[in-house]
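Give me structure tokens for this 69-residue protein.
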Amino acid sequence: MPVFLERAKWNDWLDPKNREIEELIALMQNPDPAAGLATRPVSSRVNLVANNGPELIEAIELGEAQTLF
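Here you go.
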């Protein structure tokens, strides 16, 4: 499961010696987990695990909706 951490917390989170549950839970506390995130439409190729590459996250132009759903 993804976790959104501030960059300053990365080393502590990834430290294999850090096994203190309370400390790890505290690292996950983030008042604004969506800060710095942006949404954009991408190709349906992202839905297949066999596809890989930076082109998968390039924004695509959405045309006029063809159906209601």
